[in-house]
Design a protein that fits this description.
The radius of gyration is 16 Å and the shape is globular. 33% of the residues lie in helices and 23% in strands. It has one domain: Vaccinia Virus protein VP39 (Rossmann fold). The chain is an alpha/beta fold. The protein is built from six helices and eight strands; from the N terminus they run E-E-H-E-H-E-H-E-H-E-H-H-E-E. The protein binds S-adenosylmethionine. S-adenosylmethionine binds next to helix 1.
Length: 213
């Protein structure tokens, strides 16, 4: 890891360059089930913070009509994504080096139907969330959607486990933290998105879907 902000919070196993994430093992089926009928036919999807790359192959296995662009700022993760996607070359491109902390990350990317980002915004500074939303607006076509998966705080309705997780994260790095849905909505409204759908997921996680207006 070249940057202390670029980090995953769990132990990852590996088979050669293919990293294996225990949390992806747990969450890929529920996320896949939630999204499988929701993704537009033939959708072009940009994934930000693809990590090991296992989500892409699971979702592309469920939907052979979609096209997936993985990305990550971490080179070891990008190698893993490229290895996992070897057998899906007609559906999954080689990974891009994207960090939403870089102001121009979205330059030269356009016409995506979906930007998908799982489990990133709580382990990066808040400016990474703002950068994700701002850049997503420019890469998406009209009515395109930004899909976030992970733990979120929901004011007084926040789950205790997420409040405890938030404290733990802030103890590791004061810039990290589980984000408030309201704060994400406020920024997304500024950049031209509207919260379109919220899906409750196992273990107090959620999928938040924002639509570009
Ligand atoms: C906990 S992992 C999640 C990976 C994968 N999405 C998943 O759900 O298993 C967080 C990922 O976010 C990436 N990341 C951290 N900061 C980032 C940023 N500012 N922009 C894009 N990716 C970032 C890390 O390199 C890491 O791969």
């Amino acid at each position: 890891m070249s940057n202390e902000n670029i980090i995953h919070t769990e132990f990852r196993g590996h088979e050669a360059a293919r990293l294996i994430s225990p949390s992806v093992e747990r969450n890929k089926i529920p996320i896949g089930n939630a999204l499988v009928n929701f993704l537009p036919k033939g959708a072009n999807i940009l994934e930000v913070a693809s990590g090991t790359g296992e989500h892409a192959i699971h979702f592309c296995g469920l939907r052979p009509d979609i096209h997936w662009q993985p990305s990550d700022p971490d080179s070891e993760s990008r190698k893993s994504q490229d290895e996992w996607s070897r057998d899906f070359r007609d559906q999954i491109n080689l990974s891009h080096n994207i960090s939403t902390l870089k102001p121009n990350w979205a330059n030269r990317l356009n016409n995506y139907d979906i930007v998908f980002c799982a489990n990133m915004i709580h382990i990066a500074p808040w400016s990474a969330t703002v950068g994700l939303i701002e850049g997503s607006y420019s890469v998406l076509q009209r009515f395109g959607m930004l899909v976030l998966y992970g733990p979120f705080l929901d004011g007084k309705n926040s789950a205790h486990s997420n409040l405890r997780f938030d404290e733990r994260l802030k103890g590791q790095n004061s810039c990290w933290g589980v984000r408030e849905i309201n704060d994400i909505c406020n920024v997304s409204n500024v950049y031209g998105f509207k919260l379109y759908k919220t899906i409750n997921m196992p273990s107090n996680n959620k999928i938040l879907i924002f639509k570009k207006l």
